[in-house]
Write a structure and sequence with these properties.
Cthe_2751_sf; DUF5071; Serine Threonine Protein Phosphatase 5, Tetratricopeptide repeat; DUF5071 domain-containing protein; 132 residues
């Protein structure tokens, strides 16, 4: 096995690391120490690896990624929130999405000015509707 830090991308085209992440047996490795760093790579969905990384993150254990998703959804960083709302959360299993319901409800019913401007309240409402 390689050091866990080898699983963090080092540049915007680091598809080699994405390949390693796809092959991980999450039952044999504690990915938690690098979750925040991986999420940093989805702060801008225009970075070439970001969309693929969202799909990979969606396969991780819920208890590993939910705290970080909640942090992003409440961060006030509209680019990062966009990555989570439009690219990561749609890829999650429905039971994981349900765990995000309080955060989605907050965005849908009491959005900040920037969340309203970016129409995140509409995205959140659509996700909430898809859970019923």
């Amino acid at each position: 096995m390689f050091p866990i830090r080898d699983l963090v991308p080092t540049y915007k085209f680091d598809y080699e690391v994405l390949g390693k992440l796809r092959k991980l047996d999450l039952n044999k490795i504690d990915i938690n120490p690098i979750i925040p760093e991986l999420f940093e790579w989805i702060q801008n969905i225009n970075w070439p690896i970001a969309p693929d990384l969202c799909k990979i993150l969606a396969t991780f254990r819920a208890n590993d990624i939910i705290p970080q998703i909640k942090l992003v959804l409440n961060s006030g960083d509209d680019c990062w929130q966009n990555s989570c709302l439009c690219y990561l959360i749609p890829e999650l299993p429905i039971e994981v999405k349900r765990e995000l319901l309080p955060d989605l409800l907050r965005i849908a019913t009491s959005p900040t000015e920037i969340e309203k401007y970016c129409e995140f309240d509409s995205y959140a409402k659509k996700m909430i509707d898809s859970l019923s």
